[in-house]
Amino acid sequence: MSTTPTPYDDAKAQLKRAQEILGFSDDDYALLATPRREVTVAVPVQRDDGTMTVLQGYRIQHNWSRGPGKGGVRYAENVDMEEVRALAMLMTWKAALLNLPYGGAKGGIAFNPAEYSQAEIERITRRYVHELLPVIGPEVDIPAPDMGTDAQTMAWFMDTYSQAVGYTEPGIVTGKPVSLGGSLGRAEATSLGVYITTRAALEHLGIHEEGATVAVQGFGKVGRGAARFMDDAGMKVVAVSDVFGAVYNADGIDTKALAGHVDETGKVVDFAGAQAMDPAELLLLDVDAVVPAAVEAVLTEKNASDVKARVVVEGANGPTTGAGDAILNEKGVLVVPDILANSGGVLVSYYEWVQSRDNFFWDLERVQESQESAMLAVWGDVVKFADEHGVNLREAAVSMAVERVLDAHKMRGLFP
Ligand code: NAD
């Protein structure tokens, strides 16, 4: 039997630490640690060749005390209950930290979208939505994109839900295409937030963004945009990776040209403006900030002691294991936790949901200015809590969020 902690074990350990800091009871811990609703669904799909494959889908609503569930849908081969549980719990804390009127949820289907055609992915998505109809809704649980899903997936999601209820319901998902009621600024919101928090963390250490060096792991929806915002702001993005490999340029990569190369070839490797590097070395580069923005558990007890950056900004959810985190803290590396660093996505999802329900749409300036001022305010609150309680930024962010959720529980009372 493996003794390696699962992502859910790590998430519960963060909650335990918040319990120590805030001093609430074991009963309250049990209430907060236990997901409110867990659903598994079979997703049978007819393949293009006429055969059938049955996939496993999940949706977990961790907590509803502050509002409907909110969280992404992930399409990846290794999606399982433990991972979805952990991610749903993180969503509860993320929404509460941002003071949004949501609880936390997460979902996914265990399959590799690269091995399926677009038509098959559409059928998979529509069947998954159909199976979830009894437990989702704009007042119940509002999905969004995550790894392996995008605005197109959300459009199919919204259409299937709308067909079932008999009218168009844009409030059922966020991260929709702008043409279907999506928000301007949503597609790049997570990346913008990663840039804003990276800049704030560097400034906190007295490092000016101009010329600061950064390495970004992952060049998908989060990593690609983050690298672009950083490059535009004058930071030097010296290394970038994806699932196929990594590239390096000590003078800074032209991220716009790299994005063009990835659009053409699907990979960062073989980009003419940089040299190949060992992807395992990317997070260990001697740079000002490293930004893991791909998958979880990439900073662990095996490599954390070799991190040379002053700052780690968690663009991905759960990129640092509990053991890795302890080592980074010991070394004095400033870790900007996922629930703060990548919260721009859920924040602008909230703006999108408000716009969908109001049928009144904001311009990009309003979206991005609102996002920046909200995230900087939360950054300031987290730094203050950390200073006052002598804890690190993750402990501060999780504790602040947990306190709000617990308060909501207490005020609502326990239904017999
Ligand atoms: P995505 O599918 O768009 O991109 C993932 C990227 O990571 C791809 O470039 C892929 O090649 C790369 N990758 C995969 N495995 C890798 C590996 N082992 N090493 C290096 N690169 C690897 O996914 P995304 O939406 O960018 O999500 C990335 C992370 O950010 C996830 O943890 C997700 O939960 C989190 N996140 C996403 C959003 C959002 O709005 N999309 C919001 C908050 C958090």
From TrEMBL:
CDD domains in alphabetical order: NAD_bind_1_Glu_DH
Source organism, top-level taxon: Bacteria
InterPro entries, sorted: Aminoacid_DH-like_N_sf, Glu/Leu/Phe/Val/Trp_DH, Glu/Leu/Phe/Val/Trp_DH_C, Glu/Leu/Phe/Val/Trp_DH_dimer, Glu/Leu/Phe/Val_DH_AS, Glu_DH, NAD(P)-bd_dom_sf, NAD_bind_Glu_DH
Similarity comment text for this entry: Belongs to the Glu/Leu/Phe/Val dehydrogenases family.
Keyword Protein biosynthesis attached: no
Classification lineage: Bacteria, Bacillati, Actinomycetota, Actinomycetes, Actinomycetales
Domain Glutamate/phenylalanine/leucine/valine/L-tryptophan dehydrogenase C-terminal: 183-413
This protein's UniProt keywords: Oxidoreductase
Official protein name in the record: Glutamate dehydrogenase
Molecular function terms, GO-annotated: glutamate dehydrogenase [NAD(P)+] activity
